User: Fold this.
Amino acid sequence: MLSDDMMSAFRNALAGVPYFANLSAAMIEMIAQHAHRQQYDTGQVIFWEGDSNVALYIVEQGWLKAVKISLDGREQILDFVGPGEVFNAISVFVEAANPATVIALEPTAVWIIQQHAVEKLLDEHPELARIIIRKLAGRVQQLIKMVEDLSLHKIEARLARYLIEQSTDEQYQRPRWATQAEIANRLGVVPDVLNRALRELAKENLIQVRRHQIQILDFDGLKAKARLDE
Assistant:
């Protein structure tokens, strides 16, 4: 049973997730009986691809990455996951092993809800299924877009799209964990190739690169670069 402080933290975590935000107190109490909070250090693995101990994870604080790892140790980052986001939902709903490895990029705390509690939630609140299906469909679209980018677009176009998606007020403020190696793994290249792409976009006066920040100088031009179909 969670303490009062932990229950308050759990409610706050659920409130940040769209399909959990309006649950009744009774339903939150039910889910809490099958949930626990876990903390991870930087670099610690939350679970490995292929693990069969399936659960739903809600990020309370910190950032993580979901990756596929090749036999030679090379990573392809599928997604970065931050506070208020959910991961591993696909495994929960299709009853499959975990499809990717998830690793903490910084000190992280997550809430873990066991699969049977999520299934009970859907049985008692079928209207939530529509919301969850919509979110999962969006995730599938995101992965399809990633495959398209990796297969059909040059690195400059992929980088332009990434900067647009991650920017706020035409500025990309790089988190401490977002090293060039991590960003390169997300875009499917090695750091040297990413460096050359950054220099190319800067040379075209589309961006200005600083130590922890990338300023978008020509947003329309960068959007045009992101749409290049090569």
Summary: Residues 2 and 32 are 7 Å apart (CA to CA).
